[in-house]
Design a protein that fits this description.
about 290 residues, alpha+beta, 2 domains, 6-stranded antiparallel β-sheet
Length: about 290
């Protein structure tokens, strides 16, 4: 049985309810975070909570809890669910108001949910063979740096990739790669790693930051620069990353092989370094 936290109470998932007047339900007015848990320990907890706080600030919504309070709630949810490896989903909506109006009251009390789900297992063949991706026009809004719960555009893009037999869609805005429908994107050209700069058109991923730190430690050349769509055809390697996917190689893009059509040696180095980083800094006490 899944136990979650909802507005001050811990309860079974089947008994959790919200008001139909909640602005998250009516408008998608809220933000969220997804935090991986390995062996009952959050990975990169503080960076996730910092990004949640920033998203709340950007939508003019007061953070309902301190870092200590968030940590206690998350720890309790982890403890009350069975799996050792979990995905913690934190959602804050602006809350419930008396009427459905586009404008909102600054005094409205936020609605908060913290839910656990089993951490998805990454299929072995995705590491051995890589994944397929397609390119699509980036149809999302202008504030992709906010981790908002209004994900309709992302869902439609992801579904198009799924319908095409692909795992991810690489998004193109003004002729350049921004990110994936649910991931950050990296392109290797002449042994240099390119990834789009952190601006309003991408979500600055926590895994992305870990990979940039690893690159700095390795003194590996990185350029925070968006790649032209045409340059994808010349890529040695393409990767995607997210908190639940970790780092995956794209070996087929738009039905054409990427590089040699198999996971590349640079990806392997970074994948191994990421696993080592998890074992060093993955504990909750280290992450705080």
């Amino acid at each position: 049985m899944t136990i979650l936290y909802l507005n001050g109470q811990y309860c079974p998932l089947e008994k959790a309810t919200i008001s139909v007047l909640d602005r998250g339900f009516l408008f998608g007015d809220g933000v969220y975070e997804v935090i991986p848990v390995y062996q009952r320990q959050c990975y990169q907890l503080l960076p996730h909570l910092e990004r949640l706080a920033n998203s709340l600030k950007e939508i003019d919504c007061k953070n309902p809890y301190t870092v200590t309070q968030w940590t206690t709630i998350i720890d309790n949810v982890i403890a009350q669910n069975e799996q050792d490896n979990q995905t913690i989903y934190c959602q804050v909506s602006r809350g419930i108001e008396a009427n459905r109006l586009h404008t909102y009251q600054s005094t409205t009390k936020a609605s908060v949910m913290v839910m656990s789900q089993p951490l998805p297992t990454i299929p072995v063949q995705q590491h051995q063979q890589g994944i397929k991706a397609i390119t699509l026009t980036d149809t999302r809004w202008q504030r992709c740096d906010i981790k908002a719960i209004s994900l309709l555009a992302n869902c439609l893009l992801k579904q198009k990739a799924y319908n095409a037999g692909a795992t991810e869609a690489l998004l193109i805005r003004d002729g350049k790669v921004t990110e994936g429908a649910a991931s950050n994107v990296y392109v290797v050209l002449n042994d240099v790693i390119y990834t789009a700069p952190a601006n309003q058109f991408i979500l600055a991923g926590i895994t992305r930051q870990v990979l940039l730190t690893i690159a700095a430690q390795k003194k590996w050349p990185v350029k925070l620069q968006a790649i032209e769509k045409a340059q994808l055809l010349q890529a040695q390697e393409i990767w995607i990353s997210s908190s639940t996917k970790e780092i995956l190689p794209v070996t087929v893009l738009d039905n054409k092989p990427v590089g040699e059509g198999k996971p590349g040696p640079i990806w392997r180095q970074f994948y191994q370094a990421y696993q080592q980083q998890k074992s060093i800094t993955g504990s909750v006490k280290d992450g705080r």
